[in-house]
Recover the amino acids of this structure.
């Protein structure tokens, strides 16, 4: 997973040092209500394991990046790009027959 930079932000691979940020982020009900079961995370070991899982992702496009402020270096959030299987329903204007297989290259974006 390569780092990506804009004038203001750096999207980078997570490191073990990011575990306290992930613990704080995933301990917030207002964040977790949108993720999985909605259960908050309060165990530092879970946050360390999450940071290690995120760091191990290695794909040129899909993955989970740390969003960092380039000026001060503060972590601001996370960015997720994941494969999304195509729906069996046709897109508007498509042939009305359902697709037999997912389209390759469809990606979902998420952030918090």
């Amino acid at each position: 997973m390569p780092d990506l930079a804009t004038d203001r932000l750096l999207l980078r691979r997570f490191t073990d040092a990011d575990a306290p940020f992930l613990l704080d982020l995933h301990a917030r009900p207002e964040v977790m209500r949108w993720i999985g079961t909605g259960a908050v995370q309060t165990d530092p070991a879970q946050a360390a394991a999450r940071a290690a899982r995120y760091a191990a992702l290695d794909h040129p496009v899909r993955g989970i990046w740390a969003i960092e402020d380039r000026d001060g270096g503060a972590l601001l959030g996370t960015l997720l790009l994941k494969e999304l299987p195509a729906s069996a329903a046709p897109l508007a204007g498509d042939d009305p027959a359902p697709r037999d297989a997912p389209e390759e290259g469809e990606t979902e974006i998420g952030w918090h």
Notes: The mean pLDDT is 84. The beta strands are 4-5, 9-12, 63-69, 75-83, 107-111. The longest strand covers residues 75-83. The longest helix spans residues 44-56.
